[in-house]
Amino acid sequence: MLTFYCMPWSRASGVFWLLEELGQPYEIEVVDIRAPGGVPESYRDIQPNKKVPAIDHDGTIVTERAAICIYLADTFPEAGLAPGLGDKRRAAYLTRLVYCDSVFDPAIAARAQGWTYVSNNFSFGLFDDMVANVEKLLSQQPYAVGDSFTAADTQLAGGINFTMNILKVLPALPVFKDYVARATDRPAYRRYAEKEAELAKTVTRPAFAGQG
């Protein structure tokens, strides 16, 4: 049994996409992180900060997006979404996944909030350095880890898509637009997008993507 704790159009969206790529059955538990009264305290037993996403796989709870992606892609290797141990691409794969959580997202949030700071003030560094790094990476290869789509692309492409096209914080560089178009041109992405849109209809308050 695989249970996915999420909120439509939130930081859980990339994991939602990944679950469709895996092709495994899963159940959805909506955690209304935007509820006026907040998330029930009981949810801390799943996610200590009452955030999404989280998963419960046969009693094993995993939180934090990078950890969830690594766990799922390794648990279901038949989907071919993660280089295995001993594969030279494994290091780059892990780096890209963690980068999305530890650098990309916080740098975006800092820019969206209008923060002014020097690089050494925060572990994630400067927004401009992040943009230059991702632009360089995607100018050299079609996907986050070379020539093939991996679980890392559900996070990187999903993040670029939202922050460039919806949040309007990331610059709409041609290399970013081409990458998003390439990565999302997949049946699993279309299934995920349809399911998330339907799920969003069950939430009565307007959703603001990117929180969670």
Q: Uncertain segments of ≥5 residues (pLDDT<50)?
A: 206-211
Give the overall average pLDDT: 95
How many strands, which pairing sense, and closed or not: the largest β-sheet? 4 strands, mixed
Radius of gyration using CA atoms only: 17 Å
Strand content: 5-15%
Q: Structural class, from helix and strand content?
A: alpha+beta
* Secondary structure: number of strands: 4
Distance between the termini: 24 Å
Overall shape: it is globular
Note the run of SSEs as H and E.
EHEEEHHHHHH
The main sheet orders its strands as 2-1-3-4
What is the helix content? 40-55%
Number of helices: 7
Describe the structure in your own words.
- 46% of the residues lie in helices and 8% in strands.
- It is an alpha+beta fold and 212 residues long.
- Strands 2-1-3-4 form a four-stranded mixed sheet, with helices on one face.
- Helix 1 links the parallel strand 1 and strand 2.
- Helix 5 (151-165) packs across helix 6.
Chain-wise SSE layout:
Layout: E1 2-6, H1 13-22, E2 27-30, E3 54-57, E4 60-63, H2 65-75, H3 90-112, H4 127-140, H5 151-165, H6 174-184, H7 187-200
Parallel strand pairs: 1-2
Antiparallel strand pairs: 1-3, 3-4
